Each structure stands twice: as structure tokens, then as C-alpha cells.
Amino acid sequence: MGQRLAVLSPLRIDIEDESAAHRGHAGAASGGGHYRLTLVSAAFHGKNTVARHRLVYDALGEMMRGPIHALAIKALTPDEDSV
Questions:
Q1: What is the DSSP letter of 68?
Q2: Do 27 and 69 form a contact (C-beta atoms < 8 A)?
């Protein structure tokens, strides 16, 4: 996942795999993982939450339709990260 997100030139990437907490969930049964992502990038400047999430989804591509079942995204600009 981190390699795919490199296209956004992140200053910080934190990925938490929360899949174990979702065992038995229908999405987990099909092999998709549950993740929490914090990503800090200047690419998010001037973009609202939806646009930021679209950038992340576009970078991850087909991973969003297979290996990733659920993704909680916190997408921040460098200025927002220091707040």
C-alpha cells in the first residue's frame, strides 16, 4: 500500500492493519483487510475531504477492490499535521 501511495509524495504515512478486529465480518471472510491510514501530503492543499479521498483511492487502484475491504482515511496537509 505504501508503494502505491508514493505517487502523492507523502511526508508521512501511517498504516494500521485492523483486520484481526474484524474476523467473521463478511468482507474479511472474502480476504479483504481493514486498515486505518493517516497520510500527510502537500497534494491535499486546497482540496476538500472527498477530493483527498479520491486521490488516495486513485493511487491505490485495484487494491480497493480486493486486498482492501475497508479503509479509514485521515488525509492531511503538512500544515494540518502540525496542529
A1: E
A2: yes
